[in-house]
Every structure is written in C-alpha cells, then in structure tokens.
Amino acid sequence: MKYQDYDIANFITDEFFIQWVKNPNENNNHFWEKWLAQHPEKRALVYESASLIRSVRYGYNPDFSDQMYVETFEQILKAETELNHAKPIRVATITPTPKGNFFSFFPIRNIAATLLILFCLWAQYEAFQYNPQSLEKTNIPMITRFNPAGQKSIIDLPDGTKIHLNSESVIEFPQKFSDDLRLVSLKGEAFFEVKKETRPFLVESGNAKIHVLGTSFNVKQKNNEPLYVALVTGKVRVNAGNGDQVTLDPDEMLVMEKGGEFYKRKFDPLSELGWKDNYLIFKNTIFSDVIDKLENWYGVKIVVKGHIDPKWTYSGVYKGEKLENVLRGICMTSGMNYKIDKRNITITNPK
Amino acid sequence: MNNNPKIPNIEHVPIYPPGHSESIKVYESKSDLDIWNAFNNGDENAFNYIYRMYVAILFKYGCQMYKDQNHVQDCIQNIFIDLRRKRGNLSEVQSIKSYLFKILYRELIRKTKKEIETVNHSLEKMSQSFSIEFSQETKIIDLENQEEKSYRIQTALNKLTCRQRQAILLLYEEGMSYKEIMVAMELNEVKSARKVIYRALATLKSLLIKN
C-alpha cells in the first residue's frame, strides 16, 4: 500500500512514519516534507496521526536525579574493584636495562626523586603566590547585547545557537562558552534555537533557571510580570528560585509568578512567538496594552486624548507593517484619529 | 530503517563524572555495533558513553514496571556490573537500547520474584505496570471535546493487557522499531511485535477514528 492510500491506523503503525515523529532527522524530514508538499490534502490526516503518536506517554514520570546518576555510577565501579581484590594483582614486567646504556651511568632514581622534590617546592611556592586577581584575568569576557524599544536582533552564539532578542531586552553571555556549560542570562524576551550538543544550555531569567539540551523555546520576563516559557520543540526543565522544578513538553507553556507559584498551559504559537518573525499581534488586547505594545515595538511615545471605553479591545495581525498602517488599521475600526509627529504619536477619541 | 535511533532529547542534565563529556564526542557518530564491540573490548569511554546515554531512560522504563525507585536503581546497577564482568565474552548487539531494556526487564522480574517469595508481596502490582497517559496537544478550538476524547482514549489504552501497553509505550514513547521491540520484549520474530501492536490498536480503532 502506498502512503497516499493510508488511513490513520496505517500511519500510526508505520515505522518510518513513527521514526519521523519521534526522532526527526535529515533523511525522514526530507522525505515527509516533500511528500506533504505533493499531497497537501493529507496534511490534516498526517498531523492527526502525529499528534496521536506524541500523545502516548508514560503514566509515571520519575526523575533520575543527579545524585542517583553519580551514585549508581560509583557503585558499578566499586563492585569491580571489590571483585578485583580477590584476584591476584598482575605483576608488572620490568625490562632489564641493556648493558652499556647511556642512562646507566646516572643514578636515574635519584634524579627523579630530586625533580619530584623540586616540583613540590615549586607547587608550594605557587600556592602561596595564589592571587584571586590572576584568576579573573583568565576569565572569559562577557558580552552584553541590549535592544532598546523599537529594535529587534538576531544573535548567533559561538556554539551555533541562535537567539532572537526582542526589543527592550538584555542578554549576557561569555565570548566563549566553558567546556561543560553554556550559560546565558536574560532580562526581557527572547526566542532560543539551541544547537544540540553535549554541553547543557542554561538560561537564567530572574530567579529561575531553564535547562536545555537542544530545542527551541521562548522566554519572557518583563518587569513585574510572571515568567513565561513557551516550548516549541525538544524538552526543557525550569528550576524556580525556591528549588521547585518543572519539565515542559512541546506546545506547553510555563507561567511562573514572582512568588514562585507556577502552572502549565497550552499556548497559541502565533501570539507567543510571532514577534520573532515580525508579526505584531493583538488578540482581544485592551487599550493600554495596545499602546504599550506599539511604543515598545516601534520605539515611539504615544499620547492619548479623550475617553476610551474600558471594555474596548482590539484584535489584528500585522506582518512587518509600518507604524502608520497599523495605526490606520486600529483607528479605522474604532473611529479614533491619530497624528504622527516624528517619534511622538497622538491618538484622539472624538466620541 | 534506522536501527540505531539516537535519543532525540534528554531532558535530564546530570553532572557528569570526569570523562563523560569526552566519551560523548568520540562515540556520538558511531554505530551501536561499534560502540558495543569497543565496550566488550574493555574501552572505558565506551562504557561511559553507554551509561550516560541510557541510564536515565532505563530508569524511567524500569519505573513503569515497578514504582519502587530504589528497587529499579539497584537493578540497573546490577545489570551494568554484570555486563562489565562479562566483558570480552559479550555477544554482538545491534541496538544497545533495546538490549539494555531487555536485560533490565529480566532483572526486574528476577529480583522482584525473589522479593515476592520472601516478603509476600502482592502480585497485582504487576497488572498496574506500564500505565499510559494520553494527553493530546489540544487545539484552541473545541477544547472540551478534545479533552473528553483524550480521556476516553486513555481509559481504553489502560484497559489493554500489560504486554500490549508495554509494546505501545516502546513504540510511541521510546520510538523503537518493531525489531527493537522484538528484542526488548523477547519475542521470537518481528511479526510478533507487529501483531501485539495491531491487536492493541484494533481494539482502539473505533475510538481513534471517530472524531
């Protein structure tokens, strides 16, 4: 049977299809994307099948803690040495020095001993000379990127990770990551496409820490608002400042209040992640939030004249639009007027 | 068919004992067969790699059988000690993951049987093994309907036999091929692995297709 004749039951039992859903790689991605392009009418069926496959999870999800990881490893090695004690220790074979060898003229053991003592003395000396400042000098310099209102940027990290940094956001990272950790700290909002590799990737945002291996997700924490982490692919673990931790699966969003209370919910990808692709999105947005968003997005100052109904909300999607077009769109639907004077905008409600 | 699926995402980031990060770099691109042979020949880095890659998922898998975490941890310890002891005489392994799943399953049954005999544990523990959670990615529209449907599927899944649930989890949660499921569940042929899955899904078919 060909894939185009498949029904849902065929898809969810097909190995090649399951592999693509569970372990996407270059090969199967290439095939299924091509196939979907050729059979657009099957798109819904394919997504439904993929969603079913992804929905099946273990009913019990214990965490294998760091402590268990190390403990088990040590126990395994320890069992070995205990076993080896029972066996006779293998005697090292010593190759006899050939007669007339150059080195045989020197008391080699004495030389070795002298060198060892010298080394110890030197090490002792170095230890006394230890100065914390010299350590700082060898530290890798930190790089800070800041986007003011009205500016967005894409940052490529040395490990291949890509960060979309939103406006009014700051990110700090070392010029070169250490051998065992990739650590960045964020204030504001950013979308991460983390390059998959063995060093864990850690995002610090306020008190929370987000652990990643290779995945894409959005982090938002502005002023006194909660922390939002929206996961697109892969898996991340968020550690709250108070020691609580929570794991996110794709399409889940974590909302963590300032006090550390948190909950998970689903999210709408366009409203949460659209900003990085230049989508300006309003979804039943109240007036004051519309103004904040516009000021932040375009780096302008907005003054409002007249009374605005507190029940007023606005919905609309703009992609890469100029401010004037957005203002026209908003004002047209609600009978307001606007005036642009360089970076100062005035919105008037005549009613 | 890809018989060596690398773990797609490891949500757990442990502190590595020394040498673990290096071992990953060396073995990431090698086939399971090569890694296993290196381990069999006494290569410590190969062991580090295997431990690092599989210990967390083994633990999770083991806990699906018995929720007693210490018990599962002990069994994992035992199988690795045993494997290290037998180095030099290990047989060829095509898929390390499914092989480890198999021997952990055996060890868990062996050790638990012992316990049942001595402590007089109840056997019904086993029937609750491999419980499945079914949580569909909800679409924003029609949320209520989705949730109800998910609940019905989850209930139906957990009414399947233990072996069927085990196979379904290996297929969907672990992303194993039928061949790997055959190894992990000690079935005789790939056909049998397919049969277990088909039978389980046939029971659910009406639920899955009706929207």
From TrEMBL, chain A:
Q: Could you tell me which residue ranges the FecR protein domain spans?
A: 150-237
InterPro entries (alphabetical): FecR (IPR006860), FecR_C (IPR032508), Ferrdict_sens_TM (IPR012373)
Molecular function, one GO term: sigma factor antagonist activity
The record's Gene3D superfamilies line, in alphabetical order, gives: 2.60.120.1440, 3.55.50.30
**Top-level taxon in the UniProt lineage:** Bacteria
| Protein name from the UniProt record | FecR family protein
Looking at the record, the residues that make up the Protein FecR C-terminal domain are 279-347
Automatic annotation (TrEMBL), chain B:
**CDD domains reported for this sequence:** Sigma70_r4
Name any one Pfam family assigned in the record: Sigma70_r4_2
**Source organism, top-level taxon:** Bacteria
* Limits of the RNA polymerase sigma factor 70 region 4 type domain: 152-203
* GO terms, molecular function: DNA binding; sigma factor activity
- Which terms does the UniProt entry file under GO BP? DNA-templated transcription initiation
Q: Which SUPFAM superfamilies match?
A: Sigma2 domain of RNA polymerase sigma factors (SSF88946), Sigma3 and sigma4 domains of RNA polymerase sigma factors (SSF88659)
Keyword Transcription regulation on entry: yes
Keywords of the record, alphabetical order, are: Sigma factor, Transcription, Transcription regulation
Extract the PANTHER family matched here.
RNA POLYMERASE ECF-TYPE SIGMA FACTO, RNA POLYMERASE SIGMA-70 FACTOR ECF SUBFAMILY
Q: Which family does it belong to?
A: Belongs to the sigma-70 factor family. ECF subfamily.
Q: Protein name, please?
A: RNA polymerase sigma-70 factor, ECF subfamily
